Amino acid sequence: MTTILETQDVVVRFGVLQAVSKASIKVETGQVTGLIGPNGAGKTTCFNVITGLQEATSGKVMFDGKDITNKSPFKRARMGISRTFQKLEVFGSLSARENILVAAEQRRAWDKSGFDPTAVCDEILESTGLTSVSEFMVGTLPTGTARLVELARALASNPKVLLLDEPSSGLNEEETEGMARLLRRLVAQGLAVLLVEHDMSFVMGTCEYIHVLDFGSIIATGTPLEIQANPHVQAAYLGTETVEEAS
Amino acid sequence: MRIKFNAKFISAIVVGVILAFVINKNWGGATFLSAKNLSTFLVVGIALGGIYAITAGGLVVTYATTGIFNFAHAAIGCFLAFVYWQLSVKYHIPVLIAMAITLLVIAPAIGFLLDKVLMRRLRDASLVVQLMATVGLMLTFMGITLTVWSPKTARTLDHFYEQSKGVQIGSVIATWHRIITVVIALLVAVVLRWLLYRTRLGISMRAVVDSRSLAGLTGAKPSIISGSSWALGCMTAGLAGILIAPETGLVVENLALIIIVAAAAAAIAQLKSIPMAFVGGLIIGLSTSFSSTFLKFGTDWSYAGDAIPCIILFIALLFLPQARLETGKVRLTKRTERLTKPWEAGLGGFSMVLIVGLWANGWIPWFSGTNWGERSAVWLGRGAGFLVFGLIMLSLIPLIGWAGQVSFANYAIAGIGAVLFTHFGGQNGNPIGIVFVMLVCAPLGLAIALPALRLKGLYLALATMAFAEFTDKVIVRHPNMLNPSNSGVLYKPLHLFGVTISTDTADRKAFVMFLIITFALLFFMLEMLRRSRWARRWIAMSDSPAASATIGVNLTTSKMTVFMLSGAMAGFAGCMLGLQNGALRVDSFPMFAGLPIVLLLAVQGVRYPVAAFMGALGLASFPAITELLGNPSWLTQLALIGPGIAAIAMAYRPEGAVFYSGRDLAGILPWRKDAREEKALFIAKERAENIEKDEINDMGLSRAFTEDKVAQLDRVLSITDAVDETKMVNTGGQS
């Protein structure tokens, strides 16, 4: 297993507020890495730093052995970093199919393997189970389905790393399980996934490795079992009840 | 960080060198260090800057507290200046009382009314709707002012203490008017600052921008807060209008144009800092005064002085920090539509040709001047004009409708295209010239947008409006572009595909037919483009810039392509505009003339190519209505007020008429079974919602719940097995 994505001592400051302080996260290929922490701990900010939407005050972002700290968001995407958003960022006035197609077509800008975007789009629609709603405008779809569209769109760029910001929010139990199955299948194909999530049973059931963020700092890293046993984490965030529920 | 600093540093040097060159080239020969010149410069500049500062300060206050940039700011000020004139000059009410009535009664009343009727609805609207509605408001206020106070009568507002001498400063006399102006400006600055930072109302006002609901927690009513913002905005606008009218003359266009000045100062303030807005106003005032005192522009650039605010706005844009890619701002509209199929687009285009063909041959009854089978030359000429405007509207669909880049410059680009066409073949009837014009206008469209590409959408709208003004004042007035003495025929008839295209009475019908056929072809092309990856990418970029970037879209180049396409289309429309005008004058392209085109397109629905056709019909409806009503004197400004009010109505119907009529009428088409089903579903859903709403309303939720009300509520909300044991009865009416 190799480290594909790494943040080194990333600091983000908004005025006097230190949103992220010296956060170092590692993401390995072929596994789901979790990033958890209470609200406002800086998880989404970390995502924004990795994808280039937020400039880091200091620190480095390494991807595939290269320093990408100063690269613009679209260049990082072209290198193979894809993401979804905590609050839906779908293209609401395009159909579900077009949402995915636009990403697949965009991939031709850097992926010269001569693939057919339409075929890729159909394949992803099929594998995410979106075929039946493909012609609907995304704005008319229920939130859970729209989230799936967002994920499908991220997959259409054929990323090496997939960053998912609370993928299970707005999903019902059945859909959440489907999401977990999908993630396991994706990592089995060699994708690396970094996951921000509040649903603890989902996190503990899917992630192989977890980083815990609190007040912008990483307070613990380890396997789900280690994290659950970690007293710092319990104190800062999980609370005994949630741990019991998760295990 | 270092790279950014360098880019700014380089632009600073470039701007500095250009300014030095312009100043050196146009130096009027006056000695800079003479006491007289220097004090003239300062006295005039500071007084003028004070007025600009007041209006810019007010604009920034409303923007900072409501999130809406009010393009009507200066037009409201203009209206209030006329009201003040009416009171003080016409009715001989003493100055102070007239001012008090105007600024303390009428201005706040307008502010509160605007807030209630319009602005509150705009808060959560898209940028396109916000811009269109406030630009519509600007045209409406201009139209109302022009209707009430006919521009045929000249009016003047006296300076304060016109008769007295003033104060000697150096070798210059500072009139009392100017001294009073400066004092008032300082007072306004202090009061605004104090109000926003030291009073409860002001702090609530600032909080409202960030979170409407949170601000409610401070105890102030959000409606009162936003109403106060608009009242304050109108008061400053009116004050500035009254102070500046004696300097510029009581002329609607001049006073409404101050919006460019205010926008430039607001850009310097980054739309948020009131002190910087005042500094910005002062910079513009001093620059204007500097140019009038020391510079003497040659006859080639005689109006360059008027363009100073535009130039300052452009420079300010260069130095603004790059906009962040924001997330969490996606708005999802429940639109049920599908892509137009090629044969449907073809049928649509054919229908347009058919309708206009029938009309041009007089086979559709029309208002006046025609017999059956014959269309009057006047109406044919107008028809050609509307179709040319329709072509300009088409050029805006990819730009505004798909890419979400609001530009007010396309009429100006078309104007430049028309002028260029006189050089490139229009004068000897060479159609190749059209291609040349399009090749020039494409990069021109891009160049205008360049300074604003990295900024948020509002700045683009400001920059393009400033460019339209700059075009009118500087570009087309240069003798190399249009010879002012040349008022004769500039264009030879164009022979294209066996058709003679000119504005001659005999050729007009052919011209109209040529225009509608090209229009239909472009319409078809756009419909096909909408199905392509280009349009998909533009729409994606507009719906969520952040998400587009994270799938690898280069936002900058993507925007550049759409600006070039739009510019080329506007250039083509410009050639037609020139041919339709026959001869151009230097004042053929005022900035305000381009606005109704954008507004009417938006009203019809800026995403849909068919809206350009409907928009052209909309333009045609205004002279038709006026004619139908027998050209009454109160309806002379319908061409301004009509689009204005229609655009204001977008606050209530943001998607555009084509969207709503499409939803309602698509089912009429025999092959649209899907639309019929969808509409049936929509109606059923709406009815169900209304029934529930009414039932809940009928219950009167302001009162305490009774047991049977709870049961009724459960039934309405379809809670069948209510297990909650807590009795929601007699809570003392706390709701």
TrEMBL record, chain A:
This is Unannotated protein. The lineage of its organism: unclassified sequences, metagenomes, ecological metagenomes. Transmembrane segments: none annotated. PROSITE patterns: ABC_TRANSPORTER_2. InterPro entries: AAA+_ATPase (IPR003593), ABC_AA/LPS_Transport (IPR051120), ABC_transporter-like_ATP-bd (IPR003439), BCA_ABC_TP_C (IPR032823), P-loop_NTPase (IPR027417). One of its GO terms (molecular function) is ATP hydrolysis activity. Residues 5-240 form the ABC transporter domain. GO terms for cellular component: plasma membrane. Keywords: ATP-binding, Nucleotide-binding, Transport. It holds the Pfam family ABC_tran. It comes from freshwater metagenome.
Automatic annotation (TrEMBL), chain B:
It is found in: Cell membrane. InterPro entries: ABC_transp_permease, BCAA_transport_permease, LivM-like. Keywords: Amino-acid transport, Cell membrane, Membrane, Transmembrane, Transmembrane helix, Transport. Coiled coil: none annotated. It is a multi-pass membrane protein. GO terms for molecular function: branched-chain amino acid transmembrane transporter activity. GO terms for biological process: amino acid transport. The keyword Iron-sulfur does not apply. The keyword RNA-binding does not apply. This is Unannotated protein.
